[in-house]
Amino acid sequence: MGLLAYNPPFPHSLAIRTRERRLVMNLVVGATGMLGGEVCRILASSGHPVRALVRKSSAPEKLSALEALGAEIAYGDLKDPASLAPACGGIRAVISTASSTLSRQEGDSIESVDERGQLNLVEAAERVGVAHFVLISFPPIGVEFPLQSAKRAAEERLRRGPMTHTIFQPTFFMEVWLSPALGFDPANGRVRIYGEGHNPISWISCRDVATFAVAALDNPRANNAVIKLGGPEALSPLDVVQLAERMFGKKIAVEHVPEDALRGQHQSAANSLQKSFAGLMLSYAAGEVVEMGDTLRAFRAQRLRSVREHLQAAA
Length: 315
Prior knowledge:
Blueprint: H1 14-21, E1 25-29, H2 34-45, E2 50-54, H3 60-68, E3 72-75, H4 84-88, E4 91-96, H5 110-127, E5 132-136, H6 146-160, E6 164-170, H7 174-177, E7 184-185, E8 190-194, H8 206-215, E9 225-229, H9 237-248, E10 253-257, H10 259-268, H11 272-286, H12 293-299, H13 307-314
Helix pairs in contact: 2-8, 5-6, 9-13, 10-11
């Protein structure tokens, strides 16, 4: 699974178009997050002017980091449609990584940010004539939950609209799912696995997702495409544990969260966030393998970060 659809290259020079595009501002939404911040860094380092949409309540150190990159700061909120048109003014492309799942402020929810907020952003971008919208989503999952519904609504809205769009659907981020925050802490000898842990996953680094997002701005094969993204290898969670044991030279204690417990959590969840995390954990248990050959060729991509490299850096 790679490029699901693409338009053929335009006949005029890609080199000329690239130079022209780099003179035009690009808006990053979700710029204070892990993925959005990396997108801003890559844009700035590759000569693309970047504007970062942030909230006035954003952490000062994150704003300082964006300003140090040379990013122009625009204040706005996905929940406030009136703030979005000015932020989109003069923008050629929007890259949206925003989500309420890992970082939330008062009034944030999957419904207000991931669904209605993303739709507000798409509509604002259309009104002011943005040419290209890049959305970070995730692959379709066989169980319904609010975050998936929100992502599919934003994807469908982009497909129906006039803007050129690129929808990236990465699998599980190493930096999130193979991290102590979700119970995966091999350096300290313990990990939590959702399900039995036998099904392979094409774990991907957020750095690689950010690289693809920026590359889409200058790649005609990304135009009006839905592109699944995975890492360089498909490893089951138990494979990752065995790799970590070899790397760290010690036995790692494994805690399993049974799929029945995850299904119970999904059915009895008290709110949209709990239901969505349960849905994502069920998808983790089922596994997700993405064949990247076509996509790597289409993007002439550099080598993708491996799970081993992630574990070494996180130790």
